[in-house]
Write a structure and sequence with these properties.
heterodimer, A: 162 residues, alpha+beta, Ubiquitin-like (UB roll), DNA polymerase, domain 1, five-stranded mixed beta sheet, 32% helix, globular, B: 282 residues, Uridine Diphospho-n-acetylenolpyruvylglucosamine Reductase, domain 2, Uridine Diphospho-n-acetylenolpyruvylglucosamine Reductase, domain 3, Enolase-like, domain 1, five-stranded antiparallel beta sheet, four-stranded antiparallel beta sheet, binds flavin-adenine dinucleotide, binds FE2/S2 (inorganic) cluster
Amino acid sequence: MAHITVTVDGTSYNGEVEPRKLLVHWLREDIGRVGTVVGCDTSNCGACTVLLNGRSVKSCSVLAVQADGCEVTTIQGLSDGNEWHPVQTAFKECHGLQCGYCTPGMVMAAVDLLSENPTPSEREIREGLEGNLCRCTGYHNIVKSVSYAADLMSAGPTKGAK
Amino acid sequence: MIPVEFEYVKVTTIDQAIAALKSGGEDAKIISGGQSLLPVLRLRMAEPSVLVDCGGIDEMLGVRDDGGSITIGAATTHHGVMNNPLVQKHALLLAQATATVADPAIRHRGTTGGALAHADPAGDVPAAALALNASFVIAGPSGRRTVDAKDFFLDYFTTAVGPDEILVSFSIPKCDWGSHYSKFSRTAQAWAIVGVAAVVNVKGGVIKEARIGLTNMAPTAVRASTVEAALVGASSAADITAAAMHAADGTRATSDLHAKADYREHLARVITARAVRAAAGI
Ligand SMILES: Cc1cc2nc3c(=O)[nH]c(=O)nc-3n(C[C@H](O)[C@H](O)[C@H](O)COP(=O)(O)OP(=O)(O)OC[C@H]3O[C@@H](n4cnc5c(N)ncnc54)[C@H](O)[C@@H]3O)c2cc1C
Ligand code: FES
Ligand code: FES
């Protein structure tokens, strides 16, 4: 067993983990952050995407021990509890989801994309979300959502009531 | 699935890494970004006893200017490499090839040195390293040695890095030639069916010299040396297309569920012409 300390969504957690434990399993099973989901066994789908020290990663492809000392943001840490994050507002407004399974990862990948490129073109959005698969929407509304989120974010704080 | 049990050692120096590999025995393995290794472990296609994490070794992180060349720490992420100003200025082809690897999240974790050490025949980085005449610094129990790109890639998933050794860094002679990486794949986030890495020295509209690496046309990345020779003196699209007809010469493409060998050979010729024209601006 190894001892780790990880800050998740602003709260510091520590505990003993088996080195083979994947970050996503630690988030879900050990500390109850079940907003982040697992969709595949091959690192392809992106449903498990979280931010690790501010950058998107697939949490099924990182060991929990590798996150020791790091800061993780999951879908559950995006909103302050009162207002949605603009990307969440945009997904709601533009109908950027159907079953919702890909959404936690899709939103985190979009947050990462917009932090690097606040005004992406449609092509840049499609390429930026390349690592996230959606079986329902056909992607069009997801692309619209991210584009709308970019507008919301450049316009300043949103009024998206939760 | 959940990987088999293993021990995990995080090291901060190359010497510690080599000692940890030695004490771990033949099933000890380096883990860098884990973006090739963890999927394999999850499918239980490998059962290492110890994973030695080299992500905390300062010497293996970042890019430095060495005068005539730049040196890239093997544990620098794909994202770090493709956005690095030194790489963009002096080894643009590497940035171009790295930008086509997988997707942003994988590029945030996966490392360029890891991709080179892994040596997947469909990986995008080895062909660029070959075309750029990279050289590799390998450390092991008996010290350090430097290996040229032409002697680095030995076979499927096999390089000059031995099981008790670690790839520390690789260096690229500064190159201001025109460059382009052209990757042919059918879906987003997919591996190359065929890829072509080209650097071309053009003077007065005429190609003086060219170096071309091919992805997925043999058990390792290979140079298209017949094309390179045929390109000297080329000055038109027709010249380039004619030279590119040799792109499959001497290759050993395989057939798999993505493509048959003869289709790969066809693609190599077409994609080589495209990559060279884009690199040369002709
Ligand atoms: C869904 C998906 C799609 C992908 N698509 C592409 C693609 O299109 N093109 C592409 O090129 N790659 C692709 N990759 C692979 C990606 O490039 C990996 O990041 C890279 O191949 C391995 O780098 P890593 O740092 O993650 O290595 P790891 O996974 O940590 O290690 C890989 C292997 O190399 C060894 N190793 C790593 N570093 C060293 C070192 N410094 N010294 C000695 N041995 C070392 C390890 O022991 C292991 O055997 C994809 C991966 C995934 C999961
Ligand atoms: S669960 Fe599919 S990429 Fe992580
Ligand atoms: S909304 Fe169902 S998978 Fe994307």
